[in-house]
Amino acid sequence: MYRLHCFSQSGNCFKVAFALRAMGAPWESVFVDFMRGITRDPAWRAEANEMGEVPVLDDGARRLTQSGVILQYLARQHGRFGAASEDDALQVQRWLFFDNHKFTSYFATYRFMKAFGPQAPDPAVMAWLRPRVEAAFGIVERHLTDRPYIVGDAPTIADFSMCGYLFYPKEESGIDIAAGYPHIVSWLDRLRRIDGWGSPYEVLPGAQLPPRW
Ligand SMILES: N[C@@H](CCC(=O)N[C@@H](CS)C(=O)NCC(=O)O)C(=O)O
User: Fold this and answer.
1) Kind and range of the H or E element at 6?
2) Of 21, 31, 145, 156, most Cβ neighbours within 10 A?
3) How far apart are CA 32 and CA 46, in angstroms?
4) Would you state the pLDDT for residue 135?
5) Which residue has a Cα nearest atom 10 of ligand 1?
């Protein structure tokens, strides 16, 4: 039984939860009260993750963090959603890095400030971030023009990683993906059809909160 330390607003946690469900792996959630600041508590950091981040996955005595590492571990353990060849494995890794640096990262930051930040977002910061979000989305939109999944002809952990924040309500980010990125929308429809898909607020623990700003 895996234990996933997580909370519902976290698309990084959703990446792992979706993969666990799609792989049919037994898991339970450990609710992390992120919104009340538990991950900034030195005791939590000492016990759970010195980086102050979720997801954290326990597999028995083994504790892993970083969604990209966890996804690669699960793909290896279960022989599912990995790559079909060595070249594809390199491509999966390439997209995981891009996702962590730019695609998830800029969008998740933008959404967090818009929906859950402690104060109203600074317009100058949002104006700086928005074109970076759009540039990353443009790259993925073009990539998906003539292929069904991020790598190869079947879903891989690269898809689980990159879709992590894209099933949340558009009001949270204020960015309407459906309006601007048709190939991303079709890809998300394909991912919704994978056995085990569920919406993040059904799959992860913790109440849905209305966007604050
Ligand atoms: N690259 C990390 C990012 C994890 C991450 O940023 N998680 C957020 C919650 S969604 C977090 O814990 N942030 C706390 C912080 O950045 O201090 C991953 O993919 O696991």
Assistant:
1) strand 2-6
2) 156
3) 15
4) 98
5) 10
